[in-house]
Design goal:
The chain is mainly alpha-helical and about 130 residues long. It has one domain. It has seven helices and no strands. It is globular and about 40 Å long. The mean pLDDT is about 85.
Length: about 130
């Protein structure tokens, strides 16, 4: 859909840009209420090796930049062609702070490529 939207001038509004909070906790083993109660997490994120590579890279860039992983993940999303605005499910003030800070976090082309490299397209989840 992304190439079609770009061709037609239709902006994209990504749903769950932090992967239900999984990317916000990249590099952390912190247990959350949502992780323990959200039945969809297990069905959406099942490719353990690929998901781990992505999480490790987000955590690495966050450490190097000394910012929370959520800022790195949102900054990456915001720099994708056609993205107008991600849907951020903020439930805490710091979630809003991270989303706002991500706008000004200028990832380098090398960092953007590093973050994107392990991603593999997924089947549509129902």
């Amino acid at each position: 859909m992304n190439p079609l939207c770009a061709d037609q001038g239709v902006g994209l509004i990504p749903w769950s840009p932090l992967a239900r909070g999984v990317l916000a906790r990249a590099g952390s083993e912190e247990a959350t209420t949502r992780a323990g109660s959200d039945e969809r997490i297990g069905t959406l994120y099942t490719d353990a090796d690929n998901d781990r590579q992505i999480l490790d890279r987000v955590a690495q860039v966050a450490r190097e930049r000394q910012v929370p992983p959520a800022q790195v993940a949102l900054s990456w999303v915001l720099r994708q062609p056609g993205v107008s605005a991600p849907i951020v499910g903020a439930t805490k003030e710091r979630h809003v702070d991270d989303a706002v800070a991500a706008v000004d976090l200028a990832l380098t082309d090398k960092e953007l490529a590093f973050l994107a490299e392990p991603y593999r397209p997924r089947a549509v989840a129902h």
